[in-house]
Protein backbone atom coordinates (compact mmCIF):
# COMPACT_ATOMS: atom_id res chain seq x y z
CA UNK A 1 0.00 0.00 0.00
CA UNK A 2 1.37 3.38 -0.92
CA UNK A 3 1.63 6.26 1.49
CA UNK A 4 -1.26 8.73 1.58
CA UNK A 5 -0.74 11.74 -0.67
CA UNK A 6 -2.47 14.31 1.52
CA UNK A 7 -3.90 14.96 4.95
CA UNK A 8 -7.35 14.25 3.48
CA UNK A 9 -6.18 10.85 2.20
CA UNK A 10 -4.70 10.07 5.62
CA UNK A 11 -7.96 11.03 7.33
CA UNK A 12 -9.87 8.68 4.99
CA UNK A 13 -7.44 5.86 5.78
CA UNK A 14 -7.72 6.49 9.52
CA UNK A 15 -11.52 6.42 9.25
CA UNK A 16 -11.33 3.18 7.23
CA UNK A 17 -9.09 1.41 9.77
CA UNK A 18 -11.25 2.52 12.70
CA UNK A 19 -10.16 0.59 15.80
CA UNK A 20 -7.79 -1.65 13.80
CA UNK A 21 -4.66 0.44 14.16
CA UNK A 22 -1.78 -1.99 14.63
CA UNK A 23 0.68 -2.30 11.76
CA UNK A 24 -0.25 -5.97 11.39
CA UNK A 25 -3.98 -5.18 11.15
CA UNK A 26 -3.33 -2.41 8.63
CA UNK A 27 -1.20 -4.76 6.51
CA UNK A 28 -3.97 -7.38 6.39
CA UNK A 29 -6.58 -4.68 5.70
CA UNK A 30 -4.54 -3.50 2.71
CA UNK A 31 -6.14 -6.34 0.72
CA UNK A 32 -9.65 -4.82 0.71
CA UNK A 33 -8.11 -1.43 -0.09
CA UNK A 34 -6.32 -2.88 -3.13
CA UNK A 35 -9.51 -4.58 -4.29
CA UNK A 36 -11.49 -1.33 -3.95
CA UNK A 37 -8.82 0.49 -5.97
CA UNK A 38 -8.92 -2.11 -8.77
CA UNK A 39 -12.73 -2.05 -8.76
CA UNK A 40 -12.73 1.75 -9.07
CA UNK A 41 -11.00 1.24 -12.43
CA UNK A 42 -13.41 -1.60 -13.33
CA UNK A 43 -10.25 -3.70 -13.75
CA UNK A 44 -11.22 -7.38 -13.58
CA UNK A 45 -7.67 -8.69 -13.69
CA UNK A 46 -6.60 -6.03 -11.18
CA UNK A 47 -9.21 -7.49 -8.80
CA UNK A 48 -7.92 -10.98 -9.57
CA UNK A 49 -4.35 -9.91 -8.66
CA UNK A 50 -5.57 -9.31 -5.09
CA UNK A 51 -6.15 -13.07 -4.84
CA UNK A 52 -3.66 -15.89 -4.44
CA UNK A 53 -3.11 -17.93 -7.63
CA UNK A 54 -5.60 -20.49 -6.29
CA UNK A 55 -7.94 -17.94 -4.67
CA UNK A 56 -11.69 -18.48 -4.44
CA UNK A 57 -14.50 -15.97 -5.08
CA UNK A 58 -17.99 -16.85 -3.78
CA UNK A 59 -20.92 -14.53 -4.49
CA UNK A 60 -24.70 -14.77 -4.24
CA UNK A 61 -26.43 -16.24 -7.27
CA UNK A 62 -24.39 -19.46 -7.29
CA UNK A 63 -21.13 -17.75 -8.28
CA UNK A 64 -18.02 -19.79 -7.49
CA UNK A 65 -14.80 -18.85 -9.27
CA UNK A 66 -11.45 -20.49 -8.59
CA UNK A 67 -8.07 -19.08 -9.49
CA UNK A 68 -6.98 -15.72 -10.82
CA UNK A 69 -7.87 -16.54 -14.43
CA UNK A 70 -11.49 -17.46 -13.65
CA UNK A 71 -11.88 -14.52 -11.27
CA UNK A 72 -10.35 -12.08 -13.76
CA UNK A 73 -12.54 -13.32 -16.62
CA UNK A 74 -15.68 -13.20 -14.47
CA UNK A 75 -14.97 -9.69 -13.18
CA UNK A 76 -14.03 -8.39 -16.64
CA UNK A 77 -17.35 -9.67 -18.02
CA UNK A 78 -19.18 -8.19 -15.03
CA UNK A 79 -17.62 -4.76 -15.68
CA UNK A 80 -18.82 -4.98 -19.28
CA UNK A 81 -22.31 -5.85 -18.02
CA UNK A 82 -24.06 -5.46 -14.66
CA UNK A 83 -21.10 -3.88 -12.80
CA UNK A 84 -20.26 -1.39 -15.57
CA UNK A 85 -19.32 1.94 -14.02
CA UNK A 86 -19.88 0.72 -10.45
CA UNK A 87 -17.66 1.16 -7.44
CA UNK A 88 -17.39 -0.78 -4.22
CA UNK A 89 -16.84 0.37 -0.67
CA UNK A 90 -16.67 -1.10 2.79
CA UNK A 91 -15.30 -0.86 6.26
CA UNK A 92 -13.74 -3.48 8.52
CA UNK A 93 -15.81 -4.67 11.46
CA UNK A 94 -13.65 -7.58 12.64
CA UNK A 95 -10.01 -8.63 12.22
CA UNK A 96 -8.78 -11.94 13.64
CA UNK A 97 -5.35 -13.46 13.19
CA UNK A 98 -5.28 -17.24 13.01
CA UNK A 99 -1.49 -17.13 12.73
CA UNK A 100 1.20 -14.68 11.67
CA UNK A 101 0.32 -15.41 8.04
CA UNK A 102 -3.47 -15.97 8.09
CA UNK A 103 -6.15 -13.45 9.00
CA UNK A 104 -9.95 -13.50 8.90
CA UNK A 105 -11.50 -10.15 8.02
CA UNK A 106 -15.16 -9.21 8.13
CA UNK A 107 -16.39 -6.08 6.40
CA UNK A 108 -19.68 -4.33 5.80
CA UNK A 109 -20.02 -2.56 2.49
CA UNK A 110 -21.45 -3.01 -0.94
CA UNK A 111 -21.60 -1.96 -4.54
CA UNK A 112 -21.94 1.70 -5.42
CA UNK A 113 -24.19 2.27 -8.41
CA UNK A 114 -22.63 4.52 -11.07
CA UNK A 115 -22.32 8.08 -9.76
CA UNK A 116 -23.50 7.17 -6.25
CA UNK A 117 -21.59 7.70 -2.99
CA UNK A 118 -23.96 5.72 -0.75
CA UNK A 119 -24.86 2.03 -0.98
CA UNK A 120 -28.47 1.19 -1.86
CA UNK A 121 -29.99 -1.31 0.60
CA UNK A 122 -30.28 -4.01 -2.07
CA UNK A 123 -26.56 -3.68 -2.87
CA UNK A 124 -25.31 -3.84 0.75
CA UNK A 125 -23.23 -6.88 1.72
CA UNK A 126 -21.53 -8.52 4.68
CA UNK A 127 -18.21 -9.97 3.52
CA UNK A 128 -15.74 -12.52 4.82
CA UNK A 129 -12.14 -12.34 3.64
CA UNK A 130 -9.51 -15.01 4.34
CA UNK A 131 -6.17 -13.34 3.71
CA UNK A 132 -2.77 -14.99 3.74
CA UNK A 133 0.73 -13.59 3.72
CA UNK A 134 2.75 -15.08 0.89
CA UNK A 135 6.08 -13.78 -0.38
CA UNK A 136 5.85 -10.95 2.17
CA UNK A 137 2.51 -9.71 0.75
CA UNK A 138 -1.02 -10.14 2.06
CA UNK A 139 -3.27 -11.76 -0.56
CA UNK A 140 -6.87 -12.86 -0.70
CA UNK A 141 -7.31 -16.64 -0.44
CA UNK A 142 -11.12 -16.70 -0.14
CA UNK A 143 -13.76 -13.99 -0.46
CA UNK A 144 -17.47 -14.53 0.19
CA UNK A 145 -20.32 -12.10 0.67
CA UNK A 146 -23.98 -12.20 1.61
CA UNK A 147 -26.70 -9.57 1.26
CA UNK A 148 -27.40 -7.50 4.38
CA UNK A 149 -29.62 -4.65 5.44
CA UNK A 150 -33.20 -3.80 4.63
CA UNK A 151 -32.89 -5.12 1.06
CA UNK A 152 -31.51 -8.50 2.12
CA UNK A 153 -33.73 -11.54 1.95
CA UNK A 154 -33.29 -15.04 3.23
CA UNK A 155 -33.26 -17.30 0.18
CA UNK A 156 -33.36 -20.91 1.42
Question: Strands of the largest sheet, in order across it?
Answer: 2-1-6-5-4-3
Alpha-beta content class:
alpha+beta
Poorly predicted tracts of residues: none
Strand content: 35-45%
Give the fraction of residues assigned to helices.
25-40%
Count of runs of 4 or more consecutive helical residues: 5
- Largest β sheet strand count, sense and barrel closure: 6 strands, mixed
List keywords for this structure.
alpha+beta; 156 residues; six-stranded mixed β-sheet; 30% helix; 6 strands
Give the SSE layout.
Blueprint: H1 7-17, H2 23-28, H3 30-40, H4 44-48, E1 51-59, E2 63-66, H5 67-80, E3 87-99, E4 102-112, E5 124-134, E6 137-147
Parallel strand pairs: 1-6
Antiparallel strand pairs: 1-2, 3-4, 4-5, 5-6
How would you briefly describe this protein structure?
The N and C termini lie far apart (39 Å).
Textual characterization of the structure:
The protein has 156 residues and is an alpha+beta fold. It contains five helices and six strands. It is globular, with a radius of gyration of 15 Å. It starts with 6 loop residues before the first helix and ends in a 9-residue tail after the last strand.
